[in-house]
Amino acid sequence: MAPGLAALHDALSREHDVFVVAPEREQSAVGHAITLADPLLVHKLSPKAGFNGYAVSGTPADCVKLALHELMPEPPDLVASGINVGANLGFNLLYSGTVSAANEASLQGIKAMAISLGTRQDPDFSYAARFAAHLVKNWDILGPYSQTPLNVNVPALAPDKIKGVRFVRQSQARLTERFVPRTDPWGRTYYWQAGETMGKDGGLDADFPALMAGYVTITPMAHDFTNNEALDLLRTTSLDLPQP
């Protein structure tokens, strides 16, 4: 089991019954993909490992769907997705399988959160796992928005260096993408995608700057992709059908 998931399981299982349904292999940047053209293979996790649940051959969104409709005896109170290695900020939310699992649970009517640790170097998930358990315990702060999925990022700092918690909007931070060309033994060119999050959009009201400043960031998410300002403008225009 991935170390981030194991840490999250350990923290939550101290006060809750935890049922694990997770991809059996790395599923970074798969977004909200679901598997339609291939079967989903399911493997029961060994009780000796201390986990109750299954490993699935599909994506994070597949895992949520399969768990809710087939594998769990009854729906859970909450789905916790993570802990992801590396922050999920800005436009990365569109690509993140971790975030998509939380959004899929919300679409199914289940409370949900995605939680990520803001580093890829020697990650220590212990405090992020503790914070996840703390957030579950205080979920009622959402009040009438308790069904809203949350995107949570925890800075990779010592606990006494973390400045606090900020509820923030999704920033416009994006990856500066580049592709590194290589050549295989047969002379064929292939590419590795590389990049890092860049750009500060706004101040401490946005996820990327707030995390970089040392705050745990929490962003309530929505599923509606409609650009309402553009919609209002377009409704004042007219577009005719092409002539026969």
What do you see in this structure?
- By secondary structure, this protein is of the alpha/beta class.
- It has one domain (3-170, 203-224): Stationary-phase Survival Protein Sure Homolog, Chain: A (3-Layer(aba) Sandwich), CATH 3.40.1210.10.
- 24% of the residues lie in helices and 23% in strands.
- It is built from six helices and twelve strands.
- The protein has helices at 3-12, 60-71, 97-107, 126-137, 207-212, 228-234; strands at 20-23, 42-44, 53-56, 78-85, 111-117, 150-154, 164-167, 174-175, 178-183, 189-194, 197-198, 215-220.
- It has a five-stranded mixed beta sheet.
- The longest helix is centred in the N-terminal third of the chain and has 12 residues, at 60-71.
- It starts with a helix and ends in a 10-residue tail after the last helix.
- The relative contact order is 0.14.
Write the topology of this structure.
Elements: H1 3-12, E1 20-23, E2 42-44, E3 53-56, H2 60-71, E4 78-85, H3 97-107, E5 111-117, H4 126-137, E6 150-154, E7 164-167, E8 174-175, E9 178-183, E10 189-194, E11 197-198, H5 207-212, E12 215-220, H6 228-234
Parallel strand pairs: 1-3, 4-5, 5-6, 7-12
Antiparallel strand pairs: 2-3, 6-12, 8-11, 9-10
Helix pairs in contact: 1-4, 2-3
